[in-house]
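It would be a great kindness if you could assist me with a short task in structural biology. The matter concerns a single protein, recorded as an amino acid sequence and a row of backbone structure tokens. Kindly check, if you would, that the fold set down in the tokens agrees with what the sequence suggests. Thank you for your consideration; the sequence and its tokens are set out here:
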Amino acid sequence: MISVNALEDLKRLSEAQADLVPGGVVYGITKEDTMEWVKYSKSLNMDVFHVGKKLSKNSTTSIALQEKRILTQEIPRSVYGTRLEIISIPIVDETDKAVGAFSMAFPRLHPVAVAFDGFAPVLAQMFPEGAFLCLTDLEQFVKVQSSQKFNIPSIKAGEKFENNFLSSEVIKTGKQQEKELDASIYGIPVRNVSFPLLDKDTSEVVGTFSIITPKEAAVNLRDMSSNLTENITGISSAIEELAASASQIHTNEQELHNSINEITKLSEDINEVTSFIANIADATKMLGLNAAIEAARAGQAGSGFGVVANEIRKLSDQAKSTVPKIKKLTGNIEEKVNISSEKSKGSLSSSQEQAAATQEITASIEEITTMSERLTEIAHQL
């Protein structure tokens, strides 16, 4: 019990301690059923009790006064709009008669709400892109905490949240919710993760704790990855066409090389024919010479045969004189063929190297494509 003579000292003590109580407190003194003195902590944004307020007979203070005993009760949200724990102590006069009560009302806060001011500033700075933290009850934002890199000015403590805010879904389901929002909501893409805060005794949802993080880098990464994939796909198609062309070039070079080898063989055959012509020319000349000798021996009777023999010798000389020209032409052909053959060999080798290089490039493109796909997966996970 509290003596009526100690009230002034009790008031001064309450005023000194009001702002030191974690979570806040409301002190009140009632005389019979009417409140005549009230002291709020500065941190409390509520106007539940005030001087002149009449208390019902079922209130904690009224019951404590009636029963002349210290009474503690937990008050549901439906009574004063917020959950409270109220302790009422009767005040007695010199005759030990209960004439009033001294009451203390503490908001019943979830442990996360009690510790928010301590951990929220630290937690907000731990995210590389920054974070925005907010605490709600069932209707409004209770506390908010921004980081140096990220803030949502439109969310303010004491304001009600809209039905489309993720906390509404958490309150309805009692389960953690997660949602990605595009730039139309807060100016940049964000990810909102919201957790239910449950009453330790009843397990009912009494509020939510949300962490909102910017997703701009992840979206940019996702777009870059998508563009990279498209570009790589185009390059890959071009490389495949190049590989097909290189393969065709290699085939053509192989056929050209084979044709040059055949021409070289024909040139060798021409040389053999030239040698054969030269041998025939020598034999024909020898035959004409013998015929001329025989015609001379025959005298006048063999004069016609001698003319024929002479013509044979001329043809032999003409045939023989043609042989060097044929050899020269054949030599030129061989020289050109040899040069073409060397070039063909070099071209064939180059086409083989091109084909091999194209295959390596194609393999590298496939690896880059795989990495791009993995990059896309990572971007979606961020």
Q: What stands out?
A: The first helix runs from residue 7 to 17. The first strand starts at residue 2 and ends at 3. Helices lie at 7-17, 60-67, 77-80, 111-125, 166-173, 183-186, 216-298, 303-381. The chain is about 55% helix and 20% strand.
